[in-house]
Specification:
CATH topology of the largest domain in chain A: FAD/NAD(P)-binding domain
Largest sheet of chain A: 5 strands, parallel
Number of strands of chain B: 5
Structural class of chain B: alpha+beta
Order of helices and strands of chain B: EEHEHEE
Strand content of chain A: 25-35%
Number of helices of chain A: 10
Helix content of chain B: 10-25%
Number of strands of chain A: 26
Number of helices of chain B: 2
Helix content of chain A: 10-25%
Oligomer: heterodimer
CATH superfamily of the largest domain in chain A: FAD/NAD(P)-binding domain
Largest interface: A-B, 26 and 21 residues
Structural class of chain A: alpha/beta
Distance between the termini of chain A: 55 Å
Chain lengths: 410, 107
């Protein structure tokens, strides 16, 4: 009986294992996770779970019965030490070795930590990636406490929103000239910042953290690059992630901003595959690596099919979401390479969408409290259609009636 | 516990048992009901947990909020009378016995 081992029990690993069974794989199936719990959803960690609005049992992706019924041997709390690509064996931390006919790497990404020399080893300096991270910092989130958020990406901003909503005093530092510099336009950053400022968050953009020191009172003094010092009770770092490639590297697989795979999820080894946050894949003549749940699921499912010889090339349909306060931000597409942003006011107060263009081509849409704009943009982008920017900017033109540039060209 | 009966696209019935407070989507997920993708995990962000509520039960559900109405508009094969996003329906004791049909595809 053939054996498939899936290493990494996050959203991608769980989806890949489930899809293998759904497609009829009848052999032995092992899903190995380093964390001590069954696969769970990460996005709520910095949102509803952190805010106390979601209990632990709702975080799990599947009940235990699912793994039992589908004969998925779920092994949790187990660190894989190495893969021997010649022998196709996996060595566990306890020394045990298991053989597999095919291996899928769904190892995800690891948060970048603040270096110890900057105070990163202090006990109340947290990262936001795992359930253990969220549980460790949860007791800190009480009204009146002071928190420094390092990093103005989505994770940092979501943590800031939870903290501010719960009455903490929040200071956010971002080394780049503005928040969301890597992922969104100035227009979106300005809109999101304004919401946070209205909730009392203080921003220091274009300002780096130089170091943390513990004060006599047990608080932390954060020295900033603008010469000021902020005193806080704890620190949350949201300064990005790195793809977890150590196992792949040790096995001699080709790396390229993550584990390099082809459109079928194949690594440079014919019997080893990869999917999710850890994998970079072909995209529009180049390669990309996406850090998102929808990509983790979709790429994992496509890779599962490939592993069974049923594969079709994976075509990513990137989308993302972020919840901050009562704002729902939904993003369709990838804005890389845009040269213009068209602003469309929403139908309701507090709603707006930003449409990214390269020339006449629509690349992406950021929609704030405007799911209709999001869904319209998503459909258009996935179908390769671009609405005329002048029409997009005019709220009198209904979303469903946006004239397309391609119609005019035809 | 609240019992909900899901009818899969192929006609198979799956009885799910869930505690009050969970959403209809979570009840389906925990009972391994096929065809409810719920990619966003219940954040009302993706419209891939679309279901049809049995007409006998639609009036017993709280009305959909604006966000759900907007997203539902983009789901596949929507029925204006019975379509809902299952992640937005919280199970209460009054919904014990609820019957739900799963669409053939989620778009």
């Amino acid at each position: 009986m053939s054996h498939i081992a899936v290493i990494g029990a996050g959203q991608a690993g769980s989806a890949l294992a489930a899809k293998l069974r759904a497609l009829g794989f009848d052999g032995r199936l092992t899903l190995i996770g380093a964390e001590p719990v069954a696969p769970y959803q990460r996005p709520p960690l910095s949102k509803k779970y952190m805010a106390g609005d979601m209990t632990l049992d709702r975080l799990f992706l599947r009940p235990q019965a699912f793994y039992d019924e589908n004969r998925i041997d779920l092994v949790t709390g187990c660190q894989v030490e190495a893969i021997d690509p010649e022998a196709m064996t996996i060595r566990m931390a306890d020394g045990a070795a298991i053989a597999a006919d095919q291996i899928a790497l769904t190892t995800g990404a690891d948060p970048i930590r603040l270096p110890a020399a900057m105070g990163g080893a202090l006990p109340r300096v947290y990262t936001m990636r795992s359930l253990a991270d969220a549980d460790a910092m949860a007791p800190e989130f009480t009204a009146g406490r002071r928190v420094l958020i390092v990093g103005g990406g989505y994770v940092g901003l979501e943590a800031a929103a939870v903290a501010a909503s719960r009455g903490l005093k929040v200071t956010l530092v971002e080394m780049a000239p503005r928040i969301l510099a890597r992922v969104a336009a100035q227009e979106t950053a300005d809109w999101i910042r304004a919401v946070h400022v209205a909730h009392g968050v203080e921003f220091r953009e274009g300002c780096g953290l130089q170091g943390l020191t513990e004060t006599d009172t047990g608080a932390y003094a954060a020295a900033l690059s603008d010469g000021t010092t902020v005193t806080v009770d704890f620190v949350v770092c949201g300064i990005g992630v790195r793809p977890a490639t150590a196992l792949a590297e040790g096995a001699g697989l080709t790396l390229d901003n993550g584990i390099a795979v082809d459109a079928f999820g194949r690594t440079s080894h014919p019997r080893i595959f990869a999917a999710g946050d850890c994998a970079s894949f072909p995209w529009q003549g180049g390669r990309i690596r996406l850090e998102s749940v929808p990509n983790a699921i979709d790429q994992a499912e496509a890779t599962a099919a490939s592993m069974l010889g049923q594969g079709a090339p994976y075509v990513a349909k990137p989308w993302f979401w972020s919840d901050q306060y009562d704002v729902k931000l939904q993003i369709a597409g990838l804005n890389t390479g845009h040269d213009r942003v068209v602003v469309r006011p929403g139908d309701k107060p507090g709603s707006q969408s930003h449409w990214y263009y390269r020339g006449a081509t629509l690349l992406a849409v950021d929609a704030m409290n405007d799911p209709r704009a999001y869904m319209t943009g998503k459909r258009l982008i996935e179908a390769g259609h671009s609405p005329l920017p002048e029409a997009v900017a005019d709220p009198a033109v209904a979303l469903k009636a946006l004239p397309l540039a391609d119609d005019l060209a035809a | 516990m609240i019992t909900v009966t899901f009818t899969a696209p192929d006609g198979a019935e799956i009885a799910a048992s869930a505690r009050p407070g969970l959403t209809l989507m979570e009840a389906a997920r925990d009972a391994c009901v096929p065809g409810i993708l719920a990619e966003c995990g219940g954040a009302c962000s993706c419209s891939t947990c679309h279901v049809y509520i049995d007409p006998a039960w639609t009036a017993k559900l709280p009305e959909a909020e604006e966000m759900e109405v907007d997203l539902l508009d983009f789901a596949v094969e929507v029925d204006p009378e019975t379509s809902r996003l299952s992640c937005q329906i919280t199970l209460t004791p009054e919904l014990d016995g609820l019957r739900v049909r799963v669409p053939a595809r989620q778009g």
